[in-house]
Amino acid sequence: MNIPPNSSLLVDGNAYMYRFFYGREPRYNHEGRATHVVYNFMSFARRLVQFQKPRRLVFVFDAPGDNFRHELYSDYKSHRDPMPDELRHQIDDIKQAIRLLGIPLIEMPDVEADDAIASLSTLLSALDERVFIYSLDKDLLQLVNDKVHMVNDRKGIVMDGDFVMDKYGIEPHRIVELLALTGDEADNIPGVAGIGQVTAAKLINQWGDIENIITNAHWVKGVVGNKLRKGTEDLRLSLKLTKLKEDLFSEEILPHIEFVPEDKASIHTFCKQMGFIE
To answer: Phi and psi of 267, rounded to 5°?
Structure first.
């Protein structure tokens, strides 16, 4: 996996919380408090700094509460199970650990982490920075371009435009249309019933954006055409749900996403409290 030094790394914090919670052995401090997600976040952050030598490293988290997508569609993500208590109780410690390491952390109310990542990647790439997004969330593939790539560190893969084209048959900026057409079961986005990835890619490559697909739906024959014409309202809604915001930040954010020196004394105290050291 080739990530050039001096790149900007944006980490989907919520995705890694779940990954470390379910994918690592639990550990507890002397008070019986779960700490394994905190421990793995600290280890992961240190590895990124040590081995990737980034210009920037930013962890981005969902803010508590609903966001604008819930206002658009009350059933958005409604079928998801609540976060396990043992993970939820570690969130404040995770964020404290990241800040003690001198690494910037962002969470914004009323939007999702994906929107903040999209806005940061758009800003930084416009400033000619190379951006690598650590996430497996396919929603973020819509951001991929010559300067913005995604990272699957489980498989050691950097996902670029060629990866998206090979996997989905469309250009990366059209991923938002593909997700709008197919829907997203994980996020409870309706899409158009019965349209899968292959059919969606054909429609996109023929007609382009969603409005043009809707305009030309009368030319689409058979079952697919009927579904498109009946699903226009769901399709427009789904596009609003899948499209990421890219305008949340200006250059005024730049001083707030720089590394700051580690607080070594506080890190030592924190690690003793967590039971990481004696």
So the answer is: -60, -45
Q: Judge if 40 and 103 occupy the same domain.
A: yes
Contact 40, 94 (CB under 8 A): no
Q: Domain holding 194: CATH number?
A: 1.10.150.20
Contact by Cβ (8 Å): 102, 119: no
152 beta partners: 157
For residues 15 and 198, what is the distance between their CA atoms, to the nearest angstrom? 27
> Model-level pTM?
0.95
Same domain? For 259 and 130 the reply is: yes
Q: What residue numbers bound the domain in which 212 lies?
A: 172-242
37 and 123 together in one domain: yes
Angle at 248 between CA 247 and CA 251, to 5 degrees: 90
Query: Residue 88 has which token pair?
Result: 């939820």
Cα separation, 208 vs 201, in Å, equals: 10
C-alpha span between 262 and 266 (Å, rounded): 9
pLDDT in tens, 209-263: 999 999 998 898 888 889 999 989 999 999 999 999 999 999 999 999 999 999 8
C-alpha–C-alpha distance, residues 52 and 1, integer Å: 10
CA distance 32 to 29: 5
What is the 8-class DSSP label of residue 29?
Answer: -
